[in-house]
Design a protein that fits this description.
By secondary structure, the protein is an all-alpha fold. It is built from two helices and no strands.
Length: about 90
């Protein structure tokens, strides 16, 4: 490598290698994070599918809950009316 052109090419090659090392390290870290996230996403998807199968009985349970809430509301209204009569003395 003689002359200014060869020296410039050698300097450019050294600069390229020095810049490539941090770039490759950063790229490796990013790819590692992406692979970790991909594993978590796969787990979420798998468990989400399992959970969806467990939700088949929810509409019936909600109907039961609604009827129980209505019954409790009727009983609470009766109780409140009775307490009101006792407090007012009537």
């Amino acid at each position: 490598m003689g002359g200014p052109g060869g020296l410039f090419a050698a300097g450019l090659l050294v600069l390229l290698l020095v810049a490539a090392i941090p770039y490759l390290v950063s790229l490796q870290r990013v790819m590692s994070a992406i692979n970790s996230i991909r594993g978590h996403v796969d787990g979420i998807l798998e468990n989400g599918v399992i959970l969806t199968g467990e939700l088949d009985g929810v509409p019936e349970l909600l109907e039961i809950t609604d009827s129980v809430v209505k019954e409790v509301a009727v009983g609470a209204t009766r109780y409140a009316n009775a307490v009101d009569r006792v407090v007012r003395g009537g």
